[in-house]
Design a protein that fits this description.
Mean pLDDT: 82
Distance between the termini: 151 Å
Strand order of the largest sheet: 2-1-5-4-3
Low-confidence stretches: 107-128
Bound molecules: adenosine-5'-diphosphate
CATH superfamily of one domain: Histidine kinase-like ATPase, C-terminal domain
CATH topology of one domain: Heat Shock Protein 90
Radius of gyration: 71 Å
CATH architecture of one domain: 2-Layer Sandwich
Structural class: alpha+beta
CATH class of one domain: Alpha Beta
Largest sheet: 5 strands, antiparallel
Number of helices: 24
Strand content: 25-35%
Helix content: 40-55%
Length: 905
């Protein structure tokens, strides 16, 4: 590095280290050099600032060497700032023209110009200044004027021109009256005086003074002397005026500013608001000064937070943020303001207020928001569009694309941009596109291209719309129209079919109109024959009448029944006979009625009659029986020939056979009984041969054994065998008794001998009796809520019934089980319930339970005849009772017998 370079580098360092923003421009007013502070201040990168025209930052005026106060400059971020500017031309350099030194006065000038600072400055000046003194004793006329006082008045010390009488003449003529008045007031009220006045020096110059003093009095209130001080305040006044001017200037600048300027003091009161601020806040100058900023303009919800922050800044606890945004409330409307802040300090460097410059960015933010919304919306829209969208340059290279279904791209997603459609599209399609794009570029008009792409198993139809964007760009919107194409095709197909159908229809219509024409002609011809036909019919009717009267005569006298003649369509042509009036059928049957209209016949019967009529007319002779009102009729049918010897009606002859029927029924019943007895007998024989064999052979064996055990000492054994004989004989007797009962029942020889007895007592005794036959561990438990239940029944039959049910329960239940015997009574009935825990009855066989000789399939190992329950049921019913049961296989059975209570007590 040579000396010169070193020098330049050093200068650059100094340049950069300066706390003032500095710009250097060339004669074209282009910025050619900047320091760091300038970059920060204008919010530009150094590279961006260099090369920029001065006009972009500064108001466009012709800057000469000198100072410029209060200039509004533009920053990159859109903010404006108020600055002081010093322009220095650079002479001995053929590149640079001038340097701009920039001072930000938002932090500087405003600070100096506030009221409080002024007062402090004044006080400082006063303390430094010399003060003239004087006094005058009235009695002696002794006077003293200090040297300083002479100087103030523009005289040499001791000049005779100044004495007590001439002093007033040194005052500016315009101010003398005010001074005199102030003095007189003080003397009259015996108070000190103070006034500020101008002095007119002998050389004609004017000085400003401040005069203070007091007159003294004796005890009789007689003035003794007066003394005072005079201070030259010309410099202060001058400074005051300059400051005032500057302040005005500043405030004028501020009033022209497009930003808000506010000065807020430590007590939150607004001390200054520029015009923009007043506009935004919608207040007059007089209204706003002294107002509490936070209470008046900050929304309640962040009032506390902001005022706390403000207080912290005032106390020096924190620095204000460089920029920040907050919402202010103006006439109930919220505005968003972006603020920059400066701190104002007094001479002792205490923070006394904060100056803020702000920009109302409500609309801007709103617009930004709207813009973002719009962008988001567009993006959402784009996402929702099913179409593919491509941006291409004029040579067909893809610049950008949107593809909701990337599988339709014909290439992978990342191979689209930068590639030419030639490389992606099939040659044929490419050719179509290429030609269309050339036309679009030339005509600047939208073109449509329709093409297909063959996929594995199907053809996809596409429709592309090529839109010109500019001379070098094209937008292509592609849509899959396969479905639409298919629909179109189907539509055409159905249109074609429809056409064919309508042609066929047309032909049919033509044909049938021809047929109608023929039929019409035929009708005309047949009409001509009608007259002859009528004549023929009349003759035939006459013949019919004669034949009818004949048959009526026969029918009327038809004995012990009636006859009906039906037409082929079931119309009653004739009805006659004795039984008609006997059975009062006249009300229901009359000639001219149809079978369907006869109310005393059911629908089913009507159908049947119609079939019978049809069959008869077809030539059949039918014979069947019907029953009406307890009367039996045998019916014979016969086809009737008309005068042309063709069958056109059916004759039904109803013969009353009620009497014969009765006899027949009786005979049948007798026959049935005979049959049943025969059955019984044969059953008895087969049963006897089977059921009797076991007890008889047991008896036989026992008898043989007794015979063998004849000698004494074998008594015990003998007794055992005798017991066996007795038991088996008893069994036989039971079976025989059952058969006896059965045949008696069959013959109707059982008569009921009802008598009133207590069923409870009766049952208890019966249970005691049967207990000896129970198996080991079996228990019969009797229960009833009543103590006595009187009933009028045949006790013998009841005994049989209960013994039978109980013995079944014992027989079909295992050892150690329980049998419950329950008697219940209500207002109308008495019931007995016998419940066991035995083998039960299979569900599918339960229906047959009371049938004679029925035994369930689960009873093979248990002896029995299948007669017991049949007799039980008949006995129960003979006494107007009912019996039913509930049972489940292997889960016990319950038999319930129920009788109505006797109504006489
Ligand atoms: P038997 O007991 O002589 O076979 P019954 O007429 O008394 O004749 O009974 C007919 C059938 O009803 C019996 O064979 C048996 O299958 C069934 N049955 C009657 N009572 C009971 C019962 N308490 N538990 C199970 N089955 C019964």
């Amino acid at each position: 590095m040579n000396k010169h370079q070193k020098h330049t580098a050093l200068l650059q360092q100094i340049f950069d280290a300066s706390s003032q923003a500095i710009l250097v421009i060339d004669k074209y007013k282009t910025i050619i050099q900047v320091n760091k502070v300038a970059c920060d201040f204008f919010a530009f990168e150094k590279a961006a600032l260099i090369g920029l025209k001065l006009d972009a930052l500064f108001p466009a005026i012709n800057y000469k060497e000198g100072n410029y106060k209060g200039i509004w400059i533009h920053k990159k971020n859109g903010l404006k700032a108020l600055v002081d500017l010093r322009v220095q031309t650079i002479h001995d350099n053929d590149i640079a023209e001038a340097a701009f030194y920039i001072t930000n006065i938002a932090d500087n000038l405003i600070f100096q110009s506030t009221h409080k600072i002024n007062r402090n400055n004044l006080l400082n000046i006063e303390s430094d200044g010399n003060i003239g003194t004087w006094h005058w004793i009235f009695d002696t006329d002794e006077q003293h004027w200090s040297d300083e006082l002479y100087k103030i008045c523009g005289l040499s010390p001791g000049d005779n021109n100044l004495n007590a009488r001439t002093a007033v003449l040194f005052l500016h003529p315009d101010d003398r009256e005010l001074a005199r008045k102030t003095m007189n007031y003080a003397i009259e009220n015996k108070t000190p005086y103070l006034y500020e006045n101008r002095i007119l020096r002998p050389d004609g110059t004017i000085r400003f003074i401040r005069a203070k003093g007091k007159m003294e009095f004796d005890s009789a209130s007689k003035p003794i002397q007066i003394s005072g001080t005079v201070k030259d305040i010309t410099e202060i006044k001058k400074a005051e005026i300059t400051i005032k001017k500057e302040k005005n200037l500043l405030f004028n600048y501020m009033d022209t500013a497009s930003s808000i300027f506010l000065v807020i003091n430590a007590n939150h009161k607004i001390e200054f608001a520029n015009r923009k601020a007043r506009e935004v806040l919608k207040v007059l100058d007089s209204e706003i000064i002294g107002k509490d900023w936070f209470n008046s303009f900050i929304p309640k919800h962040n009032r506390k937070q902001l005022s706390t922050l403000f207080d912290q800044v005032i106390k020096g606890e924190t620095v204000p943020p460089d920029t920040y945004e907050n919402i202010i409330l103006v006439e109930n409307e919220e505005r968003l303001i972006q603020w920059r802040n400066g701190i104002l300090r007094d001479a002792n460097k205490n923070i006394i207020s904060i100056v803020s410059s702000g920009i109302d960015i409500t609309e801007q933010t709103y617009n930004q928001k709207k813009l973002k919304e719009q962008i988001d919306k567009n993006a959402a829209l784009l996402r929702a569009i099913p179409d593919m969208i491509f941006v291409q340059d004029n040579e067909g290279t893809f610049l950008d694309f949107h593809a909701p279904d990337p599988t339709k791209l014909l290439t992978s997603k990342n191979k689209v941009i930068g590639n030419n459609m030639k490389e992606i599209l099939p040659a044929k399609v490419h050719k179509l596109f290429h030609q269309a794009q050339l036309r679009v570029l030339k005509n600047k008009q939208v073109e449509m291209v329709e093409y297909t792409i063959e996929e594995l198993e199907r053809t996809i139809f596409y429709e592309a719309r090529i839109v010109p964007m500019n001379a070098k760009k094209l937008l292509t919107i592609i849509r899959d129209v396969t479905v639409e194409k298919k629909n179109e095709k189907e539509l055409e197909e159905s249109k074609r079919k429809l056409k064919i159908y309508s042609e066929i229809l047309e032909k049919k219509v033509q044909k049938s109109s021809k047929e109608i024409k023929v039929a019409k002609e035929q009708l005309v011809t047949s009409n001509l024959n009608l007259k002859d036909q009528i004549q023929e019919t009349q003759v035939a009717e006459k013949i019919a009448l004669v034949s009818k009267s004949l048959s009526t005569a026969i029918a009327k006298n038809f004995p012990n029944g009636f006859i009906i003649v039906f037409s082929i369509n079931s119309e009653i042509l004739l009805k006659e006979g004795e039984a008609i009036s006997q059975l009062k059928l006249n009300k229901f049957i009359s000639e001219g009625m149809f079978v369907d209209d006869v109310s005393i016949v059911s629908e089913k019967q009507k159908k049947k009659i119609k079939v019978q009529i049809r069959e008869t007319i077809n030539g059949k002779h039918l014979r069947f029986e019907i029953k009406y009102k307890k009367k039996h009729f045998s019916v014979n049918t016969k086809p009737l020939l008309d005068e042309n010897d063709t069958i056109s009606s059916a004759l039904f002859v109803y013969n009353d056979i009620t009497f014969q029927k009765k006899i027949e029924l009786k005979v049948q019943n007798a026959l049935k009984k005979e049959q049943q007895l025969n059955e019984l007998k044969s059953c008895f024989i087969s049963m006897a041969s089977h059921e009797f064999r076991t007890p008889l052979s047991a008896i036989n064996t026992s008898a043989i054994l007794i015979d063998k055990q004849n000698e004494p000492g074998k008594e015990e054994k003998r007794e055992k065998y005798v017991g066996k004989i007795k038991k088996n004989v008893k069994n036989l007797v039971v079976i025989l008794n059952d058969f006896l009962s059965l045949s008696k029942l069959e013959e109707g020889n059982i008569t009921v001998h009802g008598e009133l007895f207590d069923l409870i007592d009766f049952s208890k005794k019966l249970i005691e009796e049967i207990k000896i036959t129970t198996k080991v561990g079996q228990n019969i438990i009797f229960s009833s809520l009543e103590s006595k239940v009187f009933i009028k029944l045949d006790p013998k039959l009841v005994r049989h019934i209960l013994l039978n049910l109980l013995s079944n329960s014992i027989k079909y239940s295992p050892e150690d089980s329980q049998i419950n015997f329950k008697i219940k009574e209500n207002s109308t009935h008495v019931s007995i319930e016998i419940k066991d825990q035995g083998i039960g009855i299979p569900k599918e066989e339960q229906k047959q339970l009371f049938e004679r000789f029925f035994r369930a399939r689960n009873t093979h190992n248990i002896e029995g005849t299948g007669i017991g329950l049949n007799i039980v049921k008949q006995y129960v019913e003979l006494m107007n009772g009912t019996i039913d049961f509930k049972s489940q296989m292997n889960n016990g059975s319950t038999f319930k017998v129920k009788w109505p209570k006797p109504n006489e007590k």
